[in-house]
Write a structure and sequence with these properties.
Number of strands: 0
Distance between the termini: 27 Å
Helix content: over 70%
Shape: flat
Largest sheet: none
Radius of gyration: 17 Å
Order of helices and strands: HHHHH
Number of helices: 5
Length: 105
């Protein structure tokens, strides 16, 4: 929740004050993730932060699988981005659920 609240004002400030450059917005995301983990350690302890870090890793892996599938489908079948992302959103859900099952067992 902290990372979501911290990303939005920074993105708005970038858009308002400067012309956005390619890749600029994503360059500070790891810093926000580390800050979120630091706050989790300070507020809840190391074990809670470890669970949060595992969840972040699972979400990143699931998103990679989803992005790979979307790009492959778009290149192979020449689909529009809206169609490919809408249809394949379930791949992201399935990958995240699979990671969750693996992490639990």
């Amino acid at each position: 929740m902290v990372s979501g609240f911290s990303r939005q004002p920074i993105a708005v400030a970038e858009i308002a004050w400067e012309r956005p450059r390619r890749g600029r917005r994503s360059s500070w995301v790891p810093s926000v993730a580390l800050a979120t983990l630091g706050l989790a350690i300070a507020a809840q302890g190391r074990s809670y932060a470890a669970i949060e870090a595992r969840s972040m890793t699972g979400g990143a892996v699931a998103f990679f699988v989803y992005a790979y599938c979307v790009s492959w489908v778009m290149m192979r079948y020449r689909l529009r981005a809206l169609v490919a992302t809408t249809v394949l959103i379930f791949v992201w859900l399935a990958a995240a659920f699979a990671f969750w099952l693996i992490a639990l067992g």
